[in-house]
Each structure stands twice: as C-alpha cells, then as structure tokens.
# Entry
Amino acid sequence: MNPVPPEIEFTVQGQNAKRIRPLLDEFEAQSGIHVNVREMLWDQSWGELIRMALYGDGPDVSEIGSTWLGDIAAMNALHAFSADEIAFLGHPHRFLSIAWHRCHLPESGVIQAIPWLVGTRMIYYRRALLSALDIPEETAFQTQEHLERTLMALCKAGVKVPWTVPTGYTHTTFINLCSWVWGAGGHFVSDDGKRVLFNQPAAREGIRRYFSLGRFLAPSVRHLNGLEPDDQFLNDAQTGATMSGLWLFNRIPADARDQIGLAMPFGTLFVGGSRLVVWKHSRQREAAIQLIKFLTGVKQQAEHGLQVGLLPAVPEAYDQPPYSTERPWTVAIPGLANAHTSPMTRAWGLMEDRLTTEFAYLWEEVLNDPNLNLEALIARRLEPLARRLDLVLGQA
# Structure
C-alpha cells in the first residue's frame, strides 16, 4: 500500500492566497506535499493568531506580521528551529540582517521564525503637480516642514485632494506613524521591552505631527480606510500625495509610472513585512520546514515579491532585474541601509493592537473638530493606555 502523501495547512496574510497558489503547485509537484492555503486579512487576524497560540490548534505554517511575532513567540506556541534545521534552510547571512535579527526574543536567542517578505512605506506623489508649483522633488518630503509646505502649496493651488491616508480602524495608521515618531526622535518601547515610551514628549510630538496633517484631508477622503486611499490616489489625478507600500506601484499602469514620484518619509524607511513560522502543534513539521525552504529560495522570493509588491528577505534577489533596474525597487533598496524596524519584544503586538484602536478614535476627534488642541487630545487618549500597558510589560 502506498503511503498517504503529507498534507499541510498554510495561512497567508492579506489577499495573497490566489497569487501564491502557482508557487505552491510547483512545490507540490517537486515534493509530493500538498498545501492547503487559507487567507487571513491583516486587520482581522490578530485575534485568530492568539486563539491558535492559546488552543494549540490550526495550521502547520503561518505568515505572521513582523510586529506581532514577539507576542506569539512569548506564548510558547511556535516551533524553535534547531541548528540543523537552520543549516537546511540556509545560513542566516542569506537573509536581510534587519529581518533576521527580529526572529527571536532577545532574552532567548532561539530562532522561532524565518524572514519571508519585507514591507516598507513610501510617499507617492504626482510629479506634474509639484512641477507646476516649482517644488523640487528632491526636498519636497525631506522633513516635516518640507512636507507641510508641499501640502500647503498644493492646497493653495486648488488641488482637490492634497493628501490621503486611512483614518479608520487599521494597523496601517500605526505603521505609517512609525516614521513620524522615529523622525521626531521618539520610540514606542524601551530597549528591554519593559516600559512604553509612546507617551514621552518626543514620541507624542511625532504623533502630533502626523495627525496635524488631517487639515490637508479633503472632506471627500476623511473617512477612507484600509487600502481605499490607494484607490483614491490611483483614480483621481487631483490627488497629490499618499503613503503606501510598494504594492501600489504595481497597480499603476506602465505608461503612467513616470508621472508618479516616490520618496522616503524624512529619509527613513520603516521595515516591517512578514515571517514564516511553524506552529508547535503541527504534526507535519518536516513537511512544513520543506515548504519554508522552498518559499525562501531566491527564485521564489523574487517572483512572489514582485507579485505582492514587497521586497524579498533574501538580498541575493536584489542583484537581478527588475530589483536592480526599475522603480520602486531602486528607490527603496538603498534606503534599507538606514531603515528602522520595530524591536521583537513581548507584548509589542498587544501594544500595536491597542494603539490601533486609540488612533482610530484620535482620527475621529481630529476630523470632527479641526480646531481642537492636539497635544491635549493625544495625552488624554494615550496616557491611560500607557499606564495599563506598563503594568502588562512589567510582568512579561
């Protein structure tokens, strides 16, 4: 009797299940391992991941957002990769260092995830609108002051929508905000992960600066959420600028790409993205690790990264076109040298989830009353949260 071929379940984030199916079919043909793929939406998956960790039930392999990894790892729910398994997957130097070093809790040093894809946030703008106002592209978004002057000039020139970003309940607000907080010299947590810092003056100043840009949100775009600002920017030639991932460039028609400019916010890239993990409850660990090895191959990294608009976590892929020859890759990749990322600490995902809720409330109040005192509002919303989270972090 022929043995039953292994079968594993793989959860992916976003809307990538259809895009990755051809790669999984290739893997199945090579290995004989069948992969059932299931999709989890970014803004809805946090609770589901926590349930998987709590109850030890669910998929064999998962894509997990880099900022959530510390919480899941601290729950002792993930497989710890052995030295032999890491050797099988390839030397750590194969991977982008800023991604590899966020694959374990600092106090343990045990590798519990493998880098898969790298996400960044860029400012997209319409070059013709800036050119008409004699605004140099090189400096238009270089600092907060430059950004505000650029948006004000677009506003005074009658541009219908100078700026658009999501303002509802979405983790995108937190990810966007990282550049503002870091640019102001602030941080979200202490180095040891035991105390929050987002309520300190520098971080609060970065938060204030980001939300102050609400005055440039036209009434028609004040309540967009998720990826709706992407659609707004793509479909309206009178939308001056937005902030999004590299995937947005993929959606711009080839004959219109020269009309769109890209800039690093304040010269600093946020690096996020995703990791691949094997759950401790998996009964198909060997098959799961084979899948991870396949998905982190240079060819697969290059192909899937291009499809979903994310950078490969294996820098070897950067040496070949289009990463080496075409925008937005040639803008983003050099920025990785000075990029920032979130530390892998316990309860970072919890903090991100709670801040996402508070930022949604902040946007609601900012848009309802543009004349309110932003500093006082930020303190009122974030100070109680900081006290609660400090209690949690101190016990972690």
